[in-house]
TrEMBL record:
It comes from Sphingomonas parva. InterPro entries: cNMP-bd_dom, cNMP-bd_dom_sf, HTH_CRP, RmlC-like_jellyroll, WH-like_DNA-bd_sf, WH_DNA-bd_sf. Keywords: DNA-binding, Transcription, Transcription regulation. SUPFAM superfamilies: cAMP-binding domain-like, Winged helix' DNA-binding domain. One of its GO terms (molecular function) is DNA binding. It comes from the Bacteria. Residues 153-221 form the HTH crp-type domain. Gene3D superfamilies: Jelly Rolls, Winged helix-like DNA-binding domain superfamily/Winged helix DNA-binding domain. GO terms for biological process: regulation of DNA-templated transcription. This is Crp/Fnr family transcriptional regulator.
């Protein structure tokens, strides 16, 4: 992949690379020089299942979903990628088959670079290798947690757990913007109707409150007790 001019990249890309890889500005510039910033419109397919892949993607802006499809057509959400997440071929020296579709769920931008070059940078700079290890461990932990919830919790319990998880990302227990019910259902492997009934029931009981653009968890302890 041709090297890019780092000065032509948005400032947020530089700041994000420095933060995500926990590296110096000089190391971040080396990463940026080896990549290209690409834009993906909402609903665009970034990666397609089964394709041979030799590129790594660092999401700079927006969100993307990694999706699989069951034999009966059910959509399975493997991961949600946000700004700062890496996906694709992560350090492989040879092309690998992409295991799932990756779709932009809003307008997205990603820094794209050859996986072999990312591996070389990780060998040269321990901060990059350590950041990649931490990222993959965190992703494995999240996957394990979701596997447990799908096996141990009811569909409604998974909705409660997901709302609590998202709310705890903010100090005021506010999810902003408010979750889209179809996306909430996809996250917890249930139907939109089940997610809608669960959210409406919580609102009637005063456990959550919905404004025009936000969902606030008013009684987190009560919500936690309903995760089963």
């Amino acid at each position: 992949m041709p090297a890019s001019n780092p000065s032509a990249l948005p400032a947020e890309a530089r700041m994000l690379v420095t933060r995500v890889l926990a590296c110096s500005a000089e190391v971040a510039e080396q990463v940026l020089r080896r990549g290209r910033l690409r834009r993906f419109p909402n609903r665009a397919t970034i990666l397609r299942q089964g394709d041979w892949l030799s590129l790594a993607f660092l999401l700079v802006l927006g969100r993307a979903h990694a999706l699989l499809y069951s034999a009966d057509g059910q959509v399975i959400l493997l991961h949600e990628y946000r700004a700062g997440d890496l996906f694709g071929a992560l350090g492989e020296l040879e092309p690998v088959r992409q295991e799932c579709d990756v779709l932009a769920v809003e307008e997205a931008r990603a820094l794209v670079l050859e996986a072999a070059e990312l591996a070389l940078l990780a060998q040269q700079h321990s901060c990059i290798g350590l950041a990649l290890s931490r990222m993959l461990i965190r992703r494995l932990r999240q996957t394990t947690e979701r596997m447990y919830e799908r096996a141990a919790l009811s569909a409604v319990g998974r909705v409660h757990a997901e709302l609590l998880r998202q709310a705890r990302e903010a100090a005021d227990l506010t999810i902003r913007p408010a979750p889209i019910l179809s996306e909430l259902a996809l996250r917890v492997a249930t139907t939109r109707e089940t997610a809608s009934r669960a959210v409406n029931a919580l609102e009637r009981r005063g456990i959550i409150r919905r404004d025009a653009d936000a969902l606030i968890v008013v009684a987190p302890r009560r919500l936690e007790e309903m995760v089963f």
